[in-house]
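The protein record filed below.
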Amino acid sequence: MSAPTDQDAIAIIGAGIAGLAAARVLARAGASVQVFDKGRGVGGRVSTRRDDALAGGGRQFDHGAQYFTCESDKFAAQVADWVAAGLAAEWTGRLAVIDCDLDACRLADPPQAKQRYVGVPGMNAIAGRLADDVAAAGGRVTTGVRVAPLKRGDGRWRLAAESGEPLGDFAKVLVTAPAPQAAELLTPSPALSNAAKSVRMSGCWAAMVAFDGPIATEIDGAFVNGPPEATALSWFAREGSKPARSEGASEGPVGGSQWVLHGSPAWTESNHAITPERALEGLLEAFWKALGLPPQPVAYAEAHRWRFALPENPLAARAISDQALGLYAAGDWCGGPRVEGAYLSGLAAAEAMLSRAATV
């Protein structure tokens, strides 16, 4: 296999785990790779929000992906590298399962025991390392750019930003946006666009909350079950229970002060149009109900709605492609969800682009 040249330049749309994993493989193989993302930083849903207004270094919240696990040898090897570099660590928090009905919530059987990892000092540390690896191999990562609908001319892809700024001509394009957004970008290939359209992605209201004092619970995180009429939640976690986190002066001997609350897909769908303030009210009410505790004063609170948080019916293929057009797609909606799924999807797309092997 000959080394790619500039005539084989590749554009990747999306600097989440899938896009960055693919970019690293391609850049290390000698390809001319450019990654574009509309966000302020890399990582996508592997995200850490910081409140820098607080004296003493600010608070931080992993408000997207909460942790990652390893089931494949490829991803386990990558996680081992991150751990060795001090960019990830095992999270040994005390996790619970809570079942809720209309009247109350109660503890259920504990979750399955497994190794769960988090980025250090925040979840986005692993995305940052991938981006650094891409740059070290000669690739480029550009954030804050919304890519306009794809146009093709003279057998190449001519990318431009929505602002009209030209981004370059490319032989191949890999789209790693969430499925509904990918479907729009993939319209030059009806087969790829229709495949992306077939994937349903649920949203998630996320709350980042710091309390004035410690919370009287020994639970560090919990999976919450129940219909949307009984609970708004699907998950909550105490940030200070994760490795290399600090909760500041308000941390106490029992529990902690900073928490992330995730709304369930059903509750989020029913409340997708409400204001962030209303979302906070609903999530906090469900939080206190889940713990069986009275409300406590809030020192800081912010809500964020992830429009496309989790693929409900991911495709069987790890990556898909239209070889004739040089158009590819990957992400956690291909082959399986979560951080590991996104990483493996990115690897599969890169391998297909280098080998020209068909993936559809």
Remarks:
- The two ends are 22 Å apart (CA to CA).
- The mean pLDDT is 93.
- The chain has eight helices and 20 strands.
- The first helix runs from residue 17 to 28.
